[in-house]
Each structure stands twice: as C-alpha cells, then as structure tokens.
Structures
1.
Amino acid sequence: MRDFGENSVGLVQRQYYTFAENDPMVLDSGETLGPITLAYETYGELNAARSNAILILHALSGDAHAAGYHSPDDKHPGWWDECIGPGKAFDTRKYFVICSNVIGGCQGSTGPSSINPATGRPYGLSFPVVTIGDMVRAQRHLIDHLGIERLLAVAGGSMGGMQALQWAVSYPQRVLAALPLATTARHSPMLIAFSEVGRQAIYADPNWNHGDYYDGPRPNAGLALARMIGHITYLSEQSMHQKFGRRLQGRERYGYDFDTEFAVEGYLKHKGNQFTNRFDANSYLYVTKALDYFDLTHSHGSLQAAFANSAHIMYLVVSFTSDWLYPTYHSKELVSALLAVGADVTYCDLKSTWGHDAFLLEVDTMTALISDFLDRVVREHKIELQAAQASSVVVAPETSLARQPVRAVQVVPG
C-alpha cells in the first residue's frame, strides 16, 4: 500500500447526493431544475455536536476533489491538498471538511452534460442558466442532508470566494466565519470581456454545434483556446518573466515561422489541451456566465446593505499585490462594506509575484493565516475541538457574538 505521508488525508472517495426529484429547485432566473445531483467529498470526521464543519468552495475549473487521492496510483492529489489535511491550514484532525462540485459543472454534479430525464439525452443548452446564488442554494441542500445546522466556516478563492460571500449574504445564521480569498463582490466590465472572449472561442469551434456535440467530436480547439485566454489572467507579468522570460522551446534561435517557439507558447498550449481532458465546453459557458452575473449589490442596492444581516460573521479577506484579475481594490471594497456594518474583519494584502493563482501557491503564508484565523473563530465562539480520533467532542455553550477589534490592513511578504 502506498504511503501518502502523515500530513495527507490519503485515499478518498467521491460521494453523491441527489435531491429535488419531486420538488424542483427554483433558480434565480425563475426556471426550475430537478432532480439535482451534487458530487462531493469529505475529509476528517464530524464531531458529536456537528460544530466543526468547514465547506470548501472551488474556483471555475475546480471540482469536489480538493484533497487526497482517489487511488494508490494517482499521480496528483486534490486541487487544494497542500492546505487540507492533518496539520495543514484546514486541519482534518480538528475539522470536518466538505467540498462539492457546483451545479452547472461537469465533475459529477448536474450540468449541461448530464442526462435530462425528460429526454434521455444530455441537456446541452436546454440546461437552465445558473448563478452563484443557485450554486450556493444547492450546497445548502447538501449541508442539510449531512445534518449540519451551522458551518464553522465557508472558504474559497476566486469563484470559491464569491460562493463564500454568497453564503454569508444568503444564509448568515448558518455560518460562523467566511474566508473569501482573491475574489470580488461583482465582475467588472474587463472581467466580463475576458469571459466573453473565452465563450466566443468555443462558439467559433465548428464542433460546438450549438451545444449539441455529445454524440460526436468535441469542440476541444475552442475550449483549449478559452482556457489559454483564461490562464493568462491567472498569472502576472512578473511570474511570466520568472517562469519563461523570452526563452525558446526546443531550439536555439528563432525559426521565423509560426511553430511554437517561445516557452510561454508551449506552456499555454499544454494547459489548454490538458484542460479538454477533464472539462466540458458547455460547462465552461455556464460557469463563466455565473461569474459574470455575480453582483452582491443586485437587489440590495449597495454592498453595505447586502451585508446588513451578516455582521456577526467573522471574516478573513485576502488579496494579493500582483493579482490583476481581482486586484486589491476589489477586496478593499468588501472590507469597507463589512466595516460599515460593524463586522469583525481580518484583512491581508499579501505581497506575491504569483498573480491570481497566489491563493493556491503561497502555501506557507496562507497556512499561517488560515490556521490562526480558524483558531480564533473556535476560541471566540468557545467551541471545544478535539482530535478526530477522540471518542467524543464536547461543544461549550456559545456566547454572544461580541464585536472584536478590526485587524489592520496588512501587506505581508509572500
């Protein structure tokens, strides 16, 4: 048997929960969807009081497989494995960690590639448009199914951070803490523009066939191009200089042709082609639309009004100095609105050269920040946590959610 190491959650298994068979879920668009299946994974153990659950929320291309390995032969662990496990940021000796694939996705949850029970064929573009709010609404059903009344924390980066914010706004009494990382309260026009260029790349692929391609060749060229465009936004100019510079790939001098010459070209092609092996083009359309529709001020009028009922939640907001996809000012806007309603906010603007992907790559700094913050949440809510191996866990009665001094804005070396 393979030794995964003492800090790994080891072998894990994807699980499925199906609901809304007889009572379809109403979506933000007014349409309904059902039945709905959510693919999810869990790590650690739920304590006796069901008070140690943390919901991890994935980014655009993520899935339910956040940590561990599906088989002894797996070469790569889950997408946030460096932060989930014994002794890591989300310490599975203390916490019961949950991660589910979003609706509209293509990694086990109901999405456009799923079979429509009414037709016996994949939904394709007949799948209803979903929003970040719909994704969170479906997750709430999963949390109900697991018998968890209130989550210790919701956490995620990028689109995962949007879901964490939506949880705080939609279900404030069911969350003690929220960790929105490298994210925003709403997509800017520039971000919508990047999303649309990616979608147009898929539309232009002759194999897309208006979304009805499941019985034939897939629109992999369009999807790969969309991923290449998106991936550029996850990096920074400095990180691209460090990783690639103007280095040539497999040759010593310019070929003066249109072959792949520069190392950065080869890298983007590899990332794009690799993406087509695990993602569905229609899901890319749906999930990027959900990102573009996301706007916490919609129907509230302002961010401050959106957070009015979630001021008791403790927040850890993190941005990165080189993130030009969701620049620092996006997080500062969040912090200002949270402070205006009297929320307990810890905010850090981390110095990093890794761009938007820094929330996945600055492991040591993120581990220290998240561990300390979660320890404070547990301490201030007087939740007694014991190791998962313990026979029982006792949770002390909660005190009132007293306001704590606001943590100063910081720039922390990455």
Note: The two ends are 36 Å apart (CA to CA).
2.
Amino acid sequence: MQGVSRTLWEEVKFDTKNVTTIDWLTYPILDITETPDTIDVVLIDHPEIAPTGGGEPSIRPIAAAIANAIFDATGVRIRRVPFSPDRVKQALS
C-alpha cells in the first residue's frame, strides 16, 4: 500500500526557494478508506533458488505496474509520479 500511496498521491512540493511540504497534515498519502478490502498474495515456491531478501526493494515495481495499467486502459503513457487525478486528466487531453 505504501507503493500505491507513493505512486498515486505522495509528492514533496517546492517553491522557488524552499520545500513547501513541511508537515504530515498537508502531505498527501493514501487514506485507509481508499485501500482495497483485501489483497491477494501469491507465494511462489522455488526451493532451488537461494533466498535473496524482500521488503522495501519490492516497492519499486509498483509505479511501473500502475503506469502499465493506465496505459493498457487508455493508451496513454504517464511517466511522472504521482499519478494524481490532475496529471492523468492532463495526459489524457
């Protein structure tokens, strides 16, 4: 869900001199009401492959997967996160 939040909402904003995103009250994140009721997880058993870890590195493909879903649905490629409603509308116009 952190990857979805980063892809759809999160963005540090700046003016000409400073960071203007300065607190957690105004920093946009995915709200709990916007998350799915369930998430299906599929574990693939490959005992012949050595463990390589997990966790944070697995967040990286989330933006690409969502970008590909948007492209599949609309034919428009969006390359800058967050994929906010305004950015999606702008890309579609």
Note: The helical segments are 2-8, 60-74, 85-92.
3.
Amino acid sequence: MLTLPEKVLFALLAALSLSYTYLGFRQIVAVVRRGQPEYYSRTNRAFARFREAIIQTLTQVTVFRGRPIVGFFHSFIFYGFSFYLLVNLVDIAEGYFPRHWFSWSAGPLVGNWFRAGADIFGFLVLIGVIYFLWRRFIRNDVQLERLNESVLIHPNVRAGGIRRDSFIVAAFIFFHVGFRLFGAGSLLAAEGHVDGWQPVASTIARCLGFDPNRMIGWHVGWWTSLGLILAFLPYFVRSKHIHLFVAPIRLGLGPRDRTGEKVGTGALDPINFEDETIEQFGVAKLEQFRFTQILDPYACI
C-alpha cells in the first residue's frame, strides 16, 4: 500500500491527466460535429449496429483476414492490453487500500485466474510489441512506409511523424507492462515465495533474490507502470492510436438502410458540372465533408 503522501500525489496527477485527456476528446468531438449531416439515420437498427461493432472489435476479424501473421501478434497486444484495463484498476485499488482487503487474490479461483491473466497476458504483450518494433524499425516493412503520391499528405507525416508516434506508443506499452511485471516479481521476492499462477513474475522474483527489501521494487513498478498511464492518456487522444477507441464507435455508426444492410458512403458525392447553380465544386472546407467522412481518419478504417 502507498503512503499517504503518495496517495495524495497520485490523485493530483490523475486529476491533471484526466483533465488534459478530456480536452483532447472534446476537441475531436468538436471537429467531427462540424461535418454535414448524413443521408441516413446513424441510430436505426441500434441492436444490430452494437452487436456487429462488438463482434468485429473483439474478434479482430478484419485484421486476421487481411494480414494473418500481423493479426496474430496484434492479438497479443489487443487482448492483453484490454485485460490490463482491469489489471490497472486493481493495481490502483491495491495501492490505496491494505493488501489484506484483497485476500481473495491470494488463493481463491477468481484471484488465481486474475493473477495468471495479468502475468501471461503481460508476457504476450511484450512479445507483440517486440515483433512490431522489429517489423517497423529493423525489417522496415514497405507496407508501413508506402505513401500514395497522388494523395496530399501532412508534412509531419512525410517527416516521419507516424514512425515517431509508433515508437512512442510501443515504448509506453513495453515499459508499462514490463514494470508491472517487475513490480509483481518484486512483491513475490519481498514475500519470500513464488507463485505457480504467475510464472513470469516468479522468474523475476528468483532473479532478484528473496529479500524483504525487494518491496521497494514493488513501489518502483507500481509508480512507473501507472505513472506511464497518466502520462500517456493525454497523448493517446492526440495520436493515431485513438483509433482503438473511435473504430468501434465508427463501426456502430456506419451507414445502414432501413433493413439494416450496410450502404457505402465513403466516397465524395458526384459533382454535376452541368448544374450552373453550384458555386462550389467538391470540398474546399472541413465543414463540407459529412459526419462519418470526418470520423473515418480518427477511426483508421
């Protein structure tokens, strides 16, 4: 458990982080709302929309279909980091309340599977991150670097903005999960035992050596892991990885007719050059795009 000054400090940092994160989300909403209304209802067939968005998100079917190897390693990060949303909440609670309040985590079935999930998923996330770092920065996969010369690209992208963003996000995920595992291993080392449900953390504990003084490692792991979350949240809403949040929303708001079937509206509207009343051909301002056309880049679909 944290000391009182640590609890106060973390609460203040969390409030600051969430405030800047909220401002980022509010900016995205303001930008998207500038778009023109769609020609269809975004809320008809609500259950079918919600179901399909959830299924496509959880199964990652589009990633596996187009790139099975990439999808395989991507699933390590997606499912592992999804589980870590729960892990982070539990870690915060354990930092604020005495450990004996969480006696369920020491033995009962739920606690065993939770610890195993945090340990194994954490290791798989690290494997996935290493693969994608290798793919982008060592292998230099041409699919990640190819730019269509006929498309207007933001200067920051041509200057390497995507590579820089990918490195920042990969580093955050690697160190966030890595220090969480280090903290779990340090806790086992401080308590003087290993845990069969945490093979990775137990290996770390053996490497560190069993000593009550290893408890400092738990503090380092806790603060670094969750501190990175607080530092990353404001950046997350301003990076290309916001698609993790927006893509399911875009899938749910996609165009459907009255029967629930999908209809394509991604292309710009055809231009009638014979209509002499038209004052503006095509799109000259952001406001002339439709709602989902502005949402698409955030969703990365």
Note: The chain has a mean pLDDT of 86.
